[in-house]
Each structure stands twice: as structure tokens, then as C-alpha cells.
Write a structure and sequence with these properties.
748 residues, Rossmann fold, Arc Repressor Mutant, subunit A, mainly alpha, two-stranded antiparallel sheet
Amino acid sequence: MPTPPFALYNPALLDPDTLLGEFTARLPLLENLLKTIRGCQKGHPPQHCLLIGARGMGKTTTLWAVAHRIDRDKELRAEWQPVVFDEESRRVGDLADFWLEAIRHWEAMTESEPGLRAEHLLDEAPADLEQRAHDCFLGLLDRSGRRAVLLIDNFNELLASIREPEQLHRLRAFLMEDSRVLLIGGATSLFEEVTSIDQPFHDFFRLFDLKPLTLGEMRECLQRLAELREDREVERVLRERQGTVEALHLLTGGNPRLVKTFYRLLSEGLRADIRAELERLLDEFTPYFKAIVDALPAQQQRIFDAIALAWNPVEVASVAKTTRLASNQVSAQIRALQKVGLVREAAGSPKRKTYLLVDRFSTIHYLMRHGRAARNRLEWFVKTLLILFPDESGADMVARLAGEAAGCGDEGRRDARDLMRSAWASMTSESARRILAHKVGERMWSEEGESALGEWLDLENVHGELPEMEIVEFFRQMPAEVRQRLGYQPEVSFWWFTVAGPLGEKGAWHLAELAYRKAIELDPRDAFLWTFLGILQQHRLEQFEEAEVSYRRAIELNPKYEYAWYFLGDLQYHHLGQYSEAEVSYRKAIELDPKVALSWSSLSRVLSHAPENWPEAQECAKTALLLDPYSGSAHRQFRRVCATSVPDWCEVLPTLLSAAIKQPSDTPLFDFAIEGAMRLAHLSGSAEVLSLVEGLDGAIPFESLLDALRVMRSHDHLQSLAPERQTVALRLIERFKPEPEEGLSSDG
């Protein structure tokens, strides 16, 4: 099924099903008009009606809706024939022309010899043409057995074209006395023939004011359009993007024609050719806008111009200065513009009233058309986008347009750059600019090529407000697979933490710090993130005071986070010279998790500074080694404080040897296990150590150690070894002979 046309300016193009299907917001008005028609009894003066509404408010559509509903209602159809005049009845110059036009439209609506009767009358050219045409029209009604509902838009222009007062009086008299004809007209505003007390149609019509659609009515209208067109994208917008719907109401002022214009923008999106989009908006809106302005008296046009060219609401005094008109004249004309629905009061003090156009797009359109350069047009185009798409989708839309335009040659790249920079300048909040910058960043992150952020936005401004964008730029230098693996999730705290890793690998410590700080900005109560920031500050940036602040913040957030306590102790011991404070921190870390070897070996190091704490230092070092025999720091600290302690070596050596067999490729562990065995053999004799090693399952890796231990037990064993094995065994024995004072130094 083909998609029905939008028919922005000619609802007659819509088939009855489509027009009535879309006709939702004005349904109460339609029902009221049909009720009026049903209430018109034969032989009684009918109640004629006049619809008053600015252009685009739906007058013509309402008149066609009346016609279609009459045709579809069995009772009304039997009684009435709708006769819809052309929107511009330029063939009417007097009352005779009015009746001739009524004949033509009757024939067209009833498909009976269209145009022939009127043309015959014109060919005859009788002196009493008006009466003959009048009688001919009524004869058509009588022969059909139905009455006529004349539906005439721009009825004010039709009356103005008749001009002769006597003819207007005759028309009024006929409409008052003959129940066979009911007239429903439309006009953009009240006009002299209706408002002046000395005019024939003063106080003649029942008036219906077509006000702008409310937000709810506009939403209902959009929803119905989407349903009829099976448009899932617009349905999603209505469901998920309340901000866009509210912005659309602000942009259109609730004008149904403008709502339809922007419906297409919601549905079809924007294309990459930005200049074409500008022209599209201008071309679609200009006929409507030009008709409005051209219909105004000259003085009102000047005042309208002054208000439109001021983006912000203006006071009477400002308009008076611009137009060089007296303030009382300006006030009077502004009131007239308010009555016709073109200008409204802005919110503010009642003592200092300010004014602006009813819908924001009229202002934008005016500024776009009267801009002094293409750049000005682009800026107002961006304002339109950001009003219509006020949330993240606006930034996404701008970034997508810019990205696609950039692929259209040098001119497209210039347009893209200007679009992005205009959008950045038009966004009033840091959060909106952040969304825009990261939308650009997302495109740069996921796409190949050498495009840099500086080609899209002013780097000085971007880095000043969003320093984390430096990281996005830096990653453009990295392989695409790295970016692909990480993805792009700048709204996720842990993503920034993950990004810091590759930055550190490249030595970009400043950017790694930015990444940690961005992660903390997104999740400021995460003790883990504060701790890693402190580690970076301590070990890479040498910002020791700042590192202490970070660790203490982590502890404040989570006093039970053992690693924050450990790294605080590490900082206090190595860089702040606070040994007693470091001891407290290490003990707290052990209290929270006694199975972390690093905390035990670090506490041992602190305690070893005081001779009275030596036994506890040895016990802590031994505990660390038993918890983690693979830890290099545990090896070093045990060697510092337990190198000559036979009981401690006896306790840890089985664990070391077993771990070395399990991980033969761990060279530091293997070497330390051999060192321990040889030291213990020198201190207490080789027999016990030899027995231990020989009893191990899988002791083959320790063949050289066994050679050395057997030689220590009996020097005769040396002669049974091959020369190369003799050399290795002797070197092992010599290497680990204890020094005379070994073990007394506290910190090695």
C-alpha cells in the first residue's frame, strides 16, 4: 500500500480515508460543526459558521473533513450535499460570479455535467445574470432533493472581491431567509465585514476559533500519522523521546501544518548534504511563511520583521526604535498581530511585556532567509536541530550529519566542520557539549582513517571543558583492533579505568591519570578507583601528597578495603618517612585480609627497623612466604630477616621445594628454593636437607642440589660425579656459605 502524501498545502489531494484517519486533534470541533448542520431545520434560518485561525491551523482540512463526514453519514447524506469551493476563488468578482462558482462546484461534487450550466449562462450573458445563476443553483438543489453546505475557505477574500454593499446585503438576506443553504467559511482572522457594526455580516456567524494544538493534541496527531504510515521510527520517538516531542511543540507553536512538516524530519531523518537540507527546510516552509507576511498591512510587516529578527523576546521600546514608529503605534499593531495568532507575549513581568513569534521555527526561518552569509544560515539550521532534538539524539544527529558530509569532498568537509562548530557554540550546557564531543569521539573511535578531533571542533575549547577528549585523540594513533577490543563507552566508569591500561603501556601517564579521574567523576564513591589513582600518582607521577589524599579518600569510602590500607602504608614507608604510621596501615590491611602475603612482608620490613621487633619481623616474613612462595617481595624480606634462622628455614623449605616442582619455569622461585636448601645445609648440616629433597616426588629438577648436598655429607661423593657436575656442586656449596655477620642487618 503506497504511503499517502502529506498534502501540507492542499488537503484536497488526500483521499477521504486518509484525511479522516489523520483528523484527530480537531475532532471536537468537527463534531460540533456536524451537530450544527443536523440542527438546521427546513423553513428556519440556518446557523452559519466561520472558522478563524492562522494559516496552517487546519481550516481547509476541517472543511474537507466536514464534507467527507457528510458523505459517509447516511442521514446527513440524504439531507445535505457538501459543496467545497477552491481555497482561492479568484473567479469571483461579484455576486453573480459567486453563484456561478457555486454551480461549478456543485456539478464537480455531484459529477453532473461539470461546468456546463455556468458556461451556458455566461454564453447567454443575460442582463439579470446574478438572478439567473442564483435560480439555477437553487434549481439544482431542488431537483436533487437535498440542501447545500457551502464550505468556503478564505471567505474574507471572497467577500472583499464582491465589493458592492448592495450585493453583500442581498447575500446576507438570502442566507438568513433560505434554509436550503448553510455556509461554513474560514478566515485567517476576523475581518471588517464581520467586525464593523455597519457591515452586512456583523454578528452574523457563529465563530469557531482554531487555536494552536496543545502538547497532548500534537502528540495524538503525530501518533495517528505514524500509525497510518506504519512508521515505527516515529512511534519510537513518541514513546522514548519526550524531550523531542516537547521541543517540537515549542518549535511549531502547535501549528498543525508545521507539525506535519517536521513529522517528515522525524520520520525520514536528515541527509548528509547539509546545504540540501537547508534548502529543503527553506523551500518547504517559505510558501506558508510568505503568504502570512504578505497578507499583513505594511506597518505590521515592519513590526513583524523587527520581532522576527530578534531571537530573544523584545519590548515595545526596542521595536519602536528599530522601526522608528511611535510606541503607541507599535503597541496597537502588536495587539493586532496577537489577534491573528502570529505574535505572543513571552513569560516575564507584566509591567515590562516582551514579545516573540508564536512558533520558534518562524523566527529561525526568517533569520535563515535574511542571514547575511551561508554560515548564518547554518547556525540557525543547527538551532532548529537542537530544538527539535534536545536530548542525546540531537548530538547524535549533528555528529552523523557531519560525518557523512565530510565524505562528500572538500566542500562537504567545510560544511561538516562549520556544522560541528556551530553546534558546539549553540549548546548552552556542558553536558550537551560533552554528548556532542563524545558522539564525534565515537565516530572517530570506530572508523578507520586519519580524521582528528581538531578537524571537527576547536581543540582549545574542547580540551578546556572536556580534557578527557585528549584520550580519544590519543587512541586514534593506536591500532584499530585495540579500539575495537575496548569499545567506546564514555558514560561507563569502568570503561575509563580499562582505558588507563593501554595508556600506561604507552607511557602516557598524564592521560592515564585523566582516565582515572574521569572514571571517578562518573563513580566518585568507588574506593577501588581512588586506590588506583593513588598508585599511579605514587609510582608514576611521584605526586606523593596527592597519592595520600587519594588513598585516604578510598579508605573514607570503604574502611574495609584492605588494598587502600596497604598502599597507604607503602606510601608512608617509602616516600613520607612515616614508619609508625606505615606499621598501623599494614596491620589494618592484615586485619582486614590476613591472607595477603604482600601486607605481611611489608609489615616485616617496617618492624625490622627496631631490634626489639626482630622476632615479630621474622614471623611476619615467614608468614608471607608460606602464604605466597612465588612472591619475590616475600623472598627478599625473608632473606633480610631470616637468612640465618634454622627453624624458619626448616618451616618454609618444604613449601618452597614443592612450589618449585609445580612451577619449574618460575626461575626466581627455583633459585630461592635452592638457596634455602643450601643455606639450611650450611647452618644445620646436610643430612636432614638431603633427606627432605630425596623424599620429594619429582625431585629430578634438583639433581645439582642433590649433588651438592651429597658432597657436603661426604666429600668422597665428588669423585663419582662427572667433571661438569663436580663444578656445579662445588659452586653451589661455595655460593651459599653464610657470612660471619649475616642476618644482623635489618633491611638488607
